[in-house]
């Protein structure tokens, strides 16, 4: 047995959970659940009321901190990212712990233990399979001026160390792409290595002001392709690639022509765009939000404009196409019905909180692009109607709706991934068993469980 599952690793935390959940664990079917990861944890341990007027301190929850640290140390040693568990108490003082190993075919959940089930090896949501539309007629902006850019930066950063021709060539070889002339001109003036700054934070600030963003070192420049911007299936499946007519930026996840060279200082990446939209320029500067899975905004028509603080006009980014949305949310405060959401361009539909009678999926029959359906508890009048949605690649349903499909042998076999929509409290072990049934239809590796038992007295 791995030391990750060893009783001595977990005993301090098990004692805390047993102490703080005695009443709950003593009820028939009682359990508690949680997870511990190398970077965070969520465990059912009572915390004391923190002192008013000051921030919470580690000492306020020292027992929890120490107990979790013992587990995290082992995770670090074993190279394990996180471990989920369900704990029961079959008798006073006794514990039975079920460790849940999601395995290679299940994503970790965000609000629950079990995330999306990967039914096809390597499959990603449709937007992550999209490449940019060709832009053979795109040209640099009239403002693009590598010589002016270089002179301006030399004036602002007279002591900067620039990259050599060999260093630029090595970056191009690493990326498999020829850097645009403006980007080469920038790095010929300043290659942005931290050691070049002598650990001088003032020099780093001056460099940021001179360029217009936090500049990545030349050897940290990378291509923001689709794989560089991963997202869980549950969220990525509800995105769609959309680029309105005349937009400067294509509404993509990523592109082999997005060359990231900077950061806003808040985690948003700055890139040169070599695959612009129909209204954009070759080499324009774009920003990719760290809070979004898809799309980018236009910052400047050229790198020269960025350095000279000539920003692009608002509203020239990708935007969305006019008409009905490709991604629709039917619920009590948004789109009022499935009928209102249905149209030939619909790609993803979520049916959420619903106060009227359950809905029929009949308006969705025959829609050519529908690939994602998610449904909250009790909203579907007949889950078996899903069998008539032939193009689905992702399905997110409640345990009850999945049970209907499984019992009728009506699970769509064209799915690439699936998820179990859990609302309220459900025992993760029950969800794991249901997940294994779905995975088995595609002969995918199951979720495994390791059980330890102990009498803690």
Structural classification: alpha+beta
Uncertain segments: none
Continuous helix count: 12
Mean pLDDT: 92
Within the largest sheet, what's the order of strands? 5-6-17-16-15-14-13
| Span of the ends, CA to CA | 23 Å
Task: Determine the strand fraction and express it as a percent band.
Answer: 15-25%
Large-scale geometry: globular
Order of helices and strands: HHEEHEEEEHHHHEEHEEEEHEHEEEHEHE
In total, the number of strands is 18
Helix fraction?
Answer: 10-25%
Task: Give me the Rg, rounded.
Answer: 27 Å
Q: Mind describing the biggest β-sheet? A: 7 strands, mixed
Description of the molecule:
The protein has 12 helices and 18 strands. The protein has a 7-stranded mixed beta sheet. Strands 7, 8, 9, 10, 11 and 12 form a 6-stranded antiparallel beta sheet that branches. With 457 residues, the chain is of the alpha+beta class. The mean pLDDT is 92. A hairpin with an 8-residue loop joins strand 11 and strand 12. The radius of gyration is 27 Å and the shape is globular. The two termini are 23 Å apart. Helix 1 runs antiparallel to helix 3 and helix 4 runs parallel beside helix 6. The longest helix is centred in the N-terminal third of the chain and has 17 residues.
What key attributes describe this structure?
457 residues; alpha+beta; 7-stranded mixed beta sheet; 18 strands; 18% strand; globular
